[in-house]
Amino acid sequence: MSSANCDDIINDIKEYQSNKVIRTDSDKSNTQNDRENDRKEKVVNFRQNQILEMMKANQNITTKELAKRLSKSVATINRDIEYLKKHNLIERANGMKYGKWIVK
Fold first, then answer.
1. Structural domain boundaries of the chain?
2. Exposure b/e, 33-62, CB count within 10 A at least 16 = b
3. How far apart are CA 90 and CA 20, in angstroms?
4. What is the pTM of this model?
5. Are 49 and 64 in contact (CB under 8 A)?
């Protein structure tokens, strides 16, 4: 390596060090907020995605039908539905008995 290249590298390092950003308390709180937002991100597992697809295909599908088709218990399907509702991916319109699923 030539001395000119070494000098360029040294100058780049000095410039980098002089431009270094010092992390403040507000930056730390922003990082914390980023982590919380990541946790709030809509993450859907394979079974929940299948439920969404079945609801798109048949808005009147029941939890019993979903459980039977997916070979899961009704309680498991209800937990998945609550998760999907909580993350604002689905909603139930016009009541439980005669209503329909709205996939957002």
1. 3-40, 46-103
2. eeeeeeeeeeeeeeebebbbebbeeeeebe
3. 45
4. 0.60
5. no
46-103 — its CATH code? Answer: 1.10.10.10
Cβ–Cβ under 8 Å, residues 51 and 84: yes
Please answer whether residues 91 and 102 qualify as being in contact, where contact means their C-beta atoms are separated by less than 8 angstroms.
yes
pLDDT, tens only, 46-74? 999 999 999 999 999 999 999 999 999 99
The one-letter code for the residue type at 47 is R
In this predicted model, what pLDDT tens digit does every residue of 77-103 receive, in sequence order? 999 999 999 999 999 998 888 899 999
* Rounded alpha-carbon distances, angstroms, from residue 10 to 7, 21, 26, 85: 5, 19, 32, 56
Q: Could you give the residue ranges of the DSSP H alpha helices within the chain?
A: 3-18, 25-40, 46-57, 63-70, 74-86
Those residues with Cβ within 8 angstroms of residue 83's Cβ, 6 or more apart along the chain or in another chain? 48
Residue 97 is given by DSSP the state T
